[in-house]
Amino acid sequence: MAHLFNVILYQPILNLLVFIYNIIPGHDIGLAIIVLTIIIRLALYPLTNKSIKSQKDLQTIQPKLKALQEKYKNDKTKLASATMNLYRENKVSPFSSCLPLLIQFPILIAVYQVLRTGLVSKQLQLYSFVANPGFLNPISLGFLNLSKPNLVLALITGLAQYWQAQTLSQQQPPATVRKSKGAKDENMMAVMNKQMKYMMPIFTVLIGISLPSGLMLYWLFGLILTIAQQKYIFKNKKNTQDNVIEGKVLNK
User: Fold this and answer.
1) Are 235 and 51 in contact (CB under 8 A)?
2) CA 205/CA 155 separation, integer angstroms
3) Are 197 and 165 in contact (CB under 8 A)?
4) pLDDT, the chain, mean
5) How many CB atoms lie within 10 A of CB 230?
6) Which of 70-74, 130-134, 148-152, 164-168 has the lowest mean pLDDT?
7) Beta-strand (E) ranges in the chain?
8) Over the stretch 177-204, which tens digit does the pLDDT of each residue have?
9) 93 by DSSP, 3-state: which?
10) How far is the CA of 154 from the CAs of 41, 205, 220, in angstroms?
11) In this structure, is the dihedral angle defined by the CA atoms of residues 210, 214, 218 and 223, taken in order, positive or negative?
12) What are residue 165's DSSP bridge partners?
């Protein structure tokens, strides 16, 4: 398993980072990490795009969830069943917010390994076609040592993590749904949403103060790109919905 991880993730990411480092003017490792982040995010774009759209759909059906709560307020079992049917009909998943994060964890670990060893080692595991710079200078912008932890960068990343979760925040499912028999998915979704919004920023800061700040730079810039992607998707989706409504009015 370790060998597979090394071949599939660690070595490609290390070589890509070194290649970027070689061609960037000034050989600034911080800029190289930012470019690496953009490339990885582009590779994950189809997945994150689908996930963000699904999250927006979850927000959209909240009024329908409230209507179901009112309709089946005296029958918890039917309420839970109707809620699940609503999700199926709208093709949304309660767990969509967690999928990109789960997939990014192995990549994050690989980036951590690259920065932990690559910024201090003079024996880089490079492909034959990637020029060996001898070593990667961990100093970015002339003062920031990305091989060492940085409290300020960890705090900024934690705030960005909260901001990203806030843009996707949604109302919890009705309490009667979460407590009803057969509503395990609803209860798990509520717990996951709360953890994503509050626990992840705290976790990010606590972990970030002990990890190379280069990893925090990678995570921070990735969050910024994700937030921009969310705002773009939400804006386009709103414009599409407004056009559909306007078309229906004109047709009448």
Assistant:
1) no
2) 6
3) yes
4) 79
5) 20
6) 164-168
7) 139-140, 144-145
8) 444 444 444 455 555 566 667 788 898 8
9) coil
10) 20, 5, 9
11) positive
12) none
- The residues, ordered by sequence, that sit 6+ positions from 91 with a Cβ below 8 Å of its Cβ are 57
Q: Which of 204, 208, 115 is nearest to 158 (CA)?
A: 204
Say how many C-beta atoms besides its own lie within 10 A of residue 85's C-beta. Answer: 11
Distance of CA 58 to the CA centre of its chain: 17
Q: Are 27 and 135 in contact (CB under 8 A)?
A: no
Look at residue 23 and tell me whether its pLDDT is greater than 50: yes
**In this predicted structure, which of 17-26, 55-64, 128-137, 241-250 has the lowest mean pLDDT?**
241-250
Question: And the tokens for 26?
Answer: 């000034």
Output the CA–CA distances (angstroms, integers) from residue 177 to 55, 67, 68, 189, 212, in the order listed: 19, 12, 10, 11, 43
Q: For residue 249, what pLDDT is reported?
A: 46
Token pair, residue 113, equals 């390994």
Q: Which residues contact 202 (CB under 8 A, 6 or more apart)?
A: 158
Q: Is the pTM of this model over 0.70?
A: yes
| Domain residue spans of the chain | 2-134+149-244
Structure tokens at 107: 């990549």
In sequence order, which residues have a C-beta less than 8 Å from that of residue 113 and are 6 or more positions away?
Answer: 10
CA atoms of 54 and 227, how far apart (whole Å)? 15
CA distances from 216 to 8, 25, 40 (A): 22, 23, 15
